[in-house]
Each structure stands twice: as C-alpha cells, then as structure tokens.
Amino acid sequence: MLHIRGNTIFLRALEPEDLEFIYQIENNVDLWEVSNTVTPYSRFLIRQYLENAHLDIYEVKQLRLVICDIDTEETLGLIDLFEFDPKNNRAGVGIVIQHPKDRGKGAGSQALELVINYGKEVLGLHQLFANISVDNHASVQLFIKNGFKLIGVKKDWEKVGNVYKDEALYQLLF
After folding, report:
1. How many helices (H) and strands (E) does the chain have?
2. Which distant-in-sequence residues (6+ apart) come within 8 Å of 33 by Cβ?
C-alpha cells in the first residue's frame, strides 16, 4: 500500500472505507467551484470509482491520495495528480482540505510538498501544473509557497453561477 509520511500528515491510497468521506467532499456544493463539478455523485458511482482506485497511474492517468493526520489517522482531504502525461513527464495537481477548521494549519502545504517529491523522485516528472481561480487566494499562496510560478491567466475561463471568473495557470519545473 502506498504510504507517504510527513511530519504531521501522511498520504495513503484510497480504501473502500473512504466511500462516505469522498461522497461528502464530492457532494459539497461549496467545493464544486474548485473541482469543476456541476452535478452530485451517488454512492453507487463512488463505490465503482473506489473499486478501480487500485489501477496504475500509467493506465488511468491519475492518482488520488487521502491526506490523513499522522496522530489520529483522521481523513483531512484529498490530493490528486491528474492529466498524467508520462511522455512529456508532467501532471496536474489539485488539493482539497474538507473542513474549513482544518485549513491553514499546514496539512495542505505538507501534502503538496510530499506529492511534489513523489512526482519528481518516483514518477520522474519534469513539471507539475495547477489551475487556480484567481480569487482563491489561499490556494494561490499555497502553490506559490511551494515553488509554483504564475505562467498565465485564462480570462473568463470558469462560469460560476452567472459570473465568469479568470483562472490562473501555475507551473513548477524540476
């Protein structure tokens, strides 16, 4: 089982027992803007997803890891590698910490640092990228703190309600 340890958190592979946790995150309308979700997910669909979570990143082009507290093993959030491109050695990265009470305490930064090292050392990536709404200041600061650079802004990229928002593209080259 994949287990990557930091100082206060660890990252682990998805387990069948994560169904309710993922269900809550995927169906939290407050998080839909960052995940580009527009419809709820059923437990049935999430169960099917979990049944295939063991597939190799080279096969499915993505990897989702659970962020857990190192002392309590409480699930805090998820961090994803997506659009994995082994030919060009790159992947996108996204992160969500489920509860506002757990944000801003370093778990996201530590998880991102661990995934950066995993991508570089294990997957042999040359770069990671992140798409972040320009008004998501906490995420912008998280990625900048971890070495990502702003390389462009996509104007009116995401429609949220009746408003179009700009999305920034950040990149980290190794």
Report:
1. 6, 8
2. 133, 158, 160
Dump pLDDT digits (tens) for 40-60.
778 888 888 888 887 889 999
Angle between helix axes 137-145 and 107-121 (nearest 10 degrees) is: 50
Alpha helices in the chain, H assignment, sequence order: 19-26, 32-35, 43-51, 57-60, 107-121, 137-145
Coil vs helix vs strand at 105? coil
User: Helix, strand or coil for residue 74?
Assistant: coil
The per-residue pLDDT for range 97-129, each reduced to its tens digit, is 999 999 999 999 999 999 999 999 999 999 999
Predicted TM-score (pTM) of the model is 0.90
Which candidate, 65, 88, 83, 55, places its Cα nearest to that of 173?
88
